[in-house]
Design brief:
The protein is an alpha/beta fold. Helix content is 33%, strand content 22%. The chain is built from twelve helices and 16 strands. The two termini are 36 Å apart.
């Protein structure tokens, strides 16, 4: 393993593209067309297509990019106070943490190192002050995560997050880790092969392995519904089967919050309130409801003074057992008042891009989370706190 300092030209990743799309699409396409480096050209196109939610096509383009090079610079201030290397695998924002949303405009250089199960990818790595594993848990990433763990032992710079902690985030592993806890609950979850699903007890929740954001996630209430579900999802080899824990409140609405554990300390990122039991922030249409936003503001503002005194001990146990420097939790409160941990994911998305006119309370909360993340990187790299500041 050898460090080198490549002369990388920056490309616009997901966070910066928000400043251009959709109005500036033609300008971006012109930039891509004029790019002489083939790998850079394909990766620039990948990020644009991903931002336009053209998922399958974007991954085809990314694969072409990775055939030419595997290192890309997405944040490039002229005199960075900190150089961060994110260890990634092939895939999109569902596979890798989009750290540019946290580090954007913070005088920090961010390089992406895409690796595969070939050890050749680790022979030459770009110079950096601190590395962080951004690749998330999935069955397709298991062998790659195991290889990264081996390489991590001889890494020449500080390295945050580790593969075993990432694999602890698998839904069935998460349940096994915490099934005996009494202060909080994780829904009982098992991984089942497709040909065994019909023997499962009903009612239950079901989703294909390696899916996120509520994709093909359904509540099964009777045998025919299960048959219909399997007919619709007949390409899946395996599924997660889990119990349904009712997190509705007296008003009939469901709530799910997102908490980032940064250096094992909790930071609130949002509260989604929905009429449907599958709570997804975008689908909850918080922008249409002043009442929902008022409740979210109260929840986020009082997170340290009201939520943490009641549930902070549970979060501490979760942080210690998952054992990651950075991981994002999705959770809720059951009808009997217990903390319910739905999911843990080091690849999840946290951001501060919601419109300030609708969500004025989010910027301060996310600024605290981002500052904590940067302080964690800085401390690991041995860089003074004051050396990291926002680029004006």
């Amino acid at each position: 393993m050898k460090l080198h300092d490549p002369a990388l030209q920056p490309i616009r990743a997901s966070r910066e593209l928000l400043n251009f799309l959709p109005e500036g699409l033609q300008r971006l396409l012109d930039e891509i067309a004029s790019e002489e480096d083939t790998g850079q050209r394909f990766m620039k196109l990948f990020f644009v297509l991903q931002s336009l939610q053209m998922d399958e096509f974007s991954l085809e383009i990314q694969n072409k990019a990775l055939q030419h090079t595997n290192v890309f610079r997405v944040l490039a201030p002229p005199d960075p106070a900190l150089r961060v290397l994110a260890i990634m695998g092939p895939g999109n924002m569902l596979d890798n943490a989009p750290l540019d949303f946290i580090l954007f405009d913070k005088n920090i250089q961010l390089d992406l190192l895409y690796v595969s199960t070939s050890t050749d990818f680790f022979k030459d790595i770009p110079e950096h002050d601190v590395a962080i594993l951004a690749l998330g848990e999935s069955s397709k990433n298991k062998s790659l995560l195991e290889l990264i763990q081996v390489q991590r032992k001889n890494w020449p710079r500080p390295f945050l997050n580790h593969s075993q902690g990432v694999m602890n985030c698998a839904r069935d592993t998460l349940y096994s880790l915490f099934k005996n806890e009494t202060t909080f609950v994780v829904p009982s979850t098992r991984k089942i092969k497709a040909d065994q699903v019909l023997s499962e007890a009903i009612p239950c929740l079901i989703r294909p392995i390696d899916t996120h954001a509520g994709e093909n996630f359904e509540k099964i209430d009777n045998a025919q519904a299960l048959v219909d579900y399997l007919n619709k999802n007949n390409t899946a080899d395996a599924f997660y089967i889990s119990e349904f824990i009712d997190c509705s409140q007296s008003d009939g609405l469901y709530r799910k919050f997102r908490i980032a554990l940064i250096d094992k300390k909790p930071y609130i990122c949002h509260l989604a309130i929905s009429e449907h039991w599958v709570v997804h922030y975008i689908a909850a249409h918080m922008e249409l409801s002043p009442a929902k936003r008022a409740e979210e503001e109260k929840f986020m503002t009082e997170f340290n003074s009201v939520f943490l005194p009641k549930y902070g001990a549970a979060l501490k146990v979760i942080a210690e057992k998952i054992d990651l420097d950075y991981v994002v939790l999705d959770g809720g409160i059951s009808m009997d008042g217990k903390f319910v941990l739905f999911e843990a994911d080091n690849g999840a998305w946290i951001h501060d891009t919601d419109p300030v006119e609708l969500y004025p309370y989010k910027k301060p909360a996310m600024a605290r989370a981002f500052s904590a993340f940067i302080d964690m990187l800085k401390f690991s790299a041995g860089v003074p706190i004051l050396a990291v500041s926002t680029v004006s």
